What we know:
Layout: H1 3-22, H2 46-53, H3 80-85, E1 94-99, E2 106-107, E3 119-120, H4 121-131, E4 133-139, E5 149-157, H5 158-164, E6 167-169, E7 173-178, E8 189-193, H6 194-198, E9 208-213, E10 216-217, E11 227-229, E12 242-248, E13 271-276, E14 280-281, E15 287-295, E16 302-309, E17 327-328, E18 330-331, E19 353-354, E20 371-379, E21 385-394, E22 416-422
Parallel strand pairs: 1-12, 4-19, 14-22
Antiparallel strand pairs: 1-3, 2-6, 4-5, 5-9, 7-8, 7-12, 9-10, 9-11, 13-15, 15-20, 16-17, 16-21, 18-20, 21-22
Amino acid sequence: MSGSLEAFLAEHSRLSRRYFLKYGAAGAAACTAINQLQAEVQDRDPALQQAIDRLETNLTIPKSFRDVSRGNPKPHTLSEEKRKQVGLTRETWSLEVISDPENKARLGNPLTKENGNALDFEALLKLGEKHAVRFSKVMTCLNIRNPLGTGIWEGVPLREILWLTKPRDNIRRVFFNGYHNDDPKQIFKSSLPIDRVLEDPPGLPPVILCYKLNGQWLSPERGAPVRMVVPESYGFKNVKWLTHVYFSNLFHANDTYANGNNDIDSTLKTFASTLSCPKQVKPLQPIPITGYAQSGTAGLAKVQVWIQKNGESLPGDDKYFTSAPWIDAEILSAPASDRWGGDLPDHKIPPETIGFDNKTRKPIAWPMPLMKAHWAILMPGLPAGKYTLRCRTIDANGKAQPMPRPFRKSGHVAIEKKDLLVTA
């Protein structure tokens, strides 16, 4: 490490200590975790508070979800009349739940159109009267960094539909696909091991046939009338416009994404990104920064930020910057009970939502796995120059992003970097 970098880091550390001591975030240590306090800060710097006030709500309005739908034409662009014809309205939808014809499972009562007992929307809602669940989930694409949206998803556990078929044996996987314009080349399919359908891992909600998002019927863009939602999985497992479920004796997956050199069994990763950061500031002017962190299956313990002066370097064998002088940001508290957004009725979490206290409608734990949380920090001012801002997470197991799964094919979580210019 060069002498100039040592001097910069020393000054950076000194300013950081002064800032955190000023606002009571730590004792004598320079980089104690503000997020561990989980307390409302009453005297934030006005510039930082202004940036926090501009943050979007934690839940996304359904119509504002980003769309990465497949199909030519995309099923949600079909006319209302065409969607009725092909079974993509609540009045005309039905689901066949059958044995895989090539790797047969033994079912005593397959649900088929031919037999007149395919599952229709009314029957699904009837099951929902007894079995429906709702839970929060951030929807993220495996190969796109930014989440598509965050919502409260509602539906009937897939296992309840399985039992209707009176399964016997030779069931190892569940395959499912959605409407694909009657074109075999466009079919989009995914799969799960049968044990994930029948039994939920600790802390995870069930796999569901979903028909509501944020208390509203799914829109065609979101996969109406019914889609699959797999809580811990990336978007490709959450197949839209669901039409068929197959129980199979095949021992391996048949996912469309497998043919694209993707890790089809990867679960949501924990990572951080910025939402607001000035591109240019004056020398020694404090720098307000906000962002979000996706809390994956490994949970979320910290968000950290580091500003490096361009031209300076760290040891070449430290490609994930583990020895950098990271500073803990503040993970903002969960929203007030009527501030969740997402076009929820009264902006409040619906009753009986998994992970929330039913009386207070507050999260039982925060940050919540499979959700996003906002973070903020006021970084100390810097001398004139060009800098690079980076942010990262530390998960609940103490692993720093992008570990423990740094590989792109299992989810895009490279450490983000932003340019910052300090000039008069």
